[in-house]
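Form 12-C: Joint structure prediction
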Amino acid sequence: MAITGRRAGSLSSRGHWAAFVMGTLVVTAGWEWGVLLIAYFVATSMLTRLGHARKEARTASMLPVQRERNALQVGANGGVFTALILLGEITGDARLSVAGLGALAAAAADTWATEIGTLWGGSPRSILSGRAVPVGTSGGITAIGSTAGVLAAALVALAAHLILRPEGQGAASPAFAVLLGGIGGSVGDSVLGATLQSKRWCEQCRTWTERRVHTCEYRTRHAVGLRWMTNDAVNLLATVLGAVLAFLTTVPLAPR
Ligand SMILES: [Zn+2]
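Section 2 - Result
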């Protein structure tokens, strides 16, 4: 699957190695987890390709042009899921598996919201100030994108229900915990994007951007946010938040 992703141009060379290692680890924990990870990866790659030229035209001033996912991006989106699913199988504690699914739901919700929102969401607004922001701005949200994000989290929650098959537990069902983790994680992603994420300034165009070299070919400078808080760091933190929320919601569950 990783080689197919590489050949299709969805993964960089190191990205396909990262995906290979992650996929192998996840399949070690059980085939159902591997199928879920592959479904996530295929859906994400297809969504990224969908209307690529239109998305690129809408966000070129704001975001670097990138078709392939690199190792850092693969790890930021799937690393927490992989680690927790493995831990869940090793310890037999279903709460860790639920936490891992919460991380995956957060990653899926963020990707769907971004890709669908960029294509069809119209003009985004900042999640905090409510002011209109340019398409592609981190922390900007649209109604259509947010709806797509909730749908993605719901799909992972459905998978959680099918894989974990809860039986008469008194606590919140895994599906509910995963849905909550997915939505909470992607909201956290947008809030971090609007606050701490590094933003740069192009003096030539007098505009905000995340590009180091702007479309006008001028070098941009770091202006606000934390220097190290890149989009990948935000994604990683969002999956951690999704995992924590799902874990806390499902804590009253007894270990399997
Ligand atoms: Zn410029």
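Section 3 - Comments
The chain has one domain: 2-250. The mean pLDDT is 91.
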